[in-house]
Amino acid sequence: AGPTQEPIDPVRYISNRSSGKMGYAIAKCARRRAAEITLVSGPVNLQPPLGVELVPVTTASEMHQEVTTRVAETDLLVMSAAVADYRMAKPSDHKVKRKAEELSLELLPNPDILASVGTKPRRDDGRPIIVGFALETDRLLQSARDKLRRKGCDLLVANLAHQSIGLDESTAFIIDGTGVIDEPGQLPKAMLADRILD
Ligand code: CTP
Questions:
Q1: What distance in angstroms lies between residue 99's CA and the mean position of ligand 1's atoms?
Q2: 172-197 confidence digits (pLDDT tens)
Q3: Are strands 76-79 and 53-56 parallel, antiparallel or unpaired?
Q4: Whose C-alpha in 55, 79, 120, 122 is 20 to 30 A from the C-alpha of 153?
Q5: pTM
Q6: CB burial of residue 117 (10 Å; 0-12, 13-18, 19+)
Q7: Collapsing DSSP states into helix, strand and coil, what is residue 148?
Q8: If DSSP codes are grouped into helix, strand and coil, which group holds residue 50?
Q9: What is the DSSP string of 157-188?
Q10: From the CB of 59, is ligand 1 less than 6 Å away?
């Protein structure tokens, strides 16, 4: 759940507007359904639901590591995190000073956590059922279908960015390999969590 933060220097980072609300709502809802939950979470301002094991992380690399080490004992992986796609090639040890000239940052791609789990062969007994998310600003369903296939998801929750990120509610489409299987309309994230788990 939540965003990741990629340090630029000791006081700055690259991140995004994710609040973690969707992932925390799913954890709470699944806990209520008697699941044993490990919540790997980037930095958010939310209380973890009661009875959930919280694994706090900061960067995409840390999230990748924590997900990978747990995936073999996991029946269901829900990747609602807004993982930063890039990190600094060389984060600075010192605060970067302001100068008059332009400044460019050299970025390296982060690992795709979801795809690293989803593209494992299914007969490998380390592979859980996988629910991914897709956050788009346009061509929602087309991009979501591509992501479902490319990242090996069983189910994918497609959201338009301006209707979901950082908000208490979301307008989502739930899709599988056959197409849209649920279209709940605008719902509070707590209720959408139930629809996804159903
Ligand atoms: N995801 C991931 N690791 C990444 C990036 C994304 O595991 N480095 C996961 C997200 O948690 C989500 C899904 O992949 O479940 C899709 O994320 P999204 O941000 O919509 O897509 P990207 O893969 O980042 O592709 P793009 O930025 O091109 O839309």
A1: 34
A2: 999 999 999 999 999 999 999 999 99
A3: unpaired
A4: 55
A5: 0.96
A6: buried
A7: helix
A8: coil
A9: EEEEGGGTTTSSEEEEEEEETTEEEEEEEEEE
A10: no
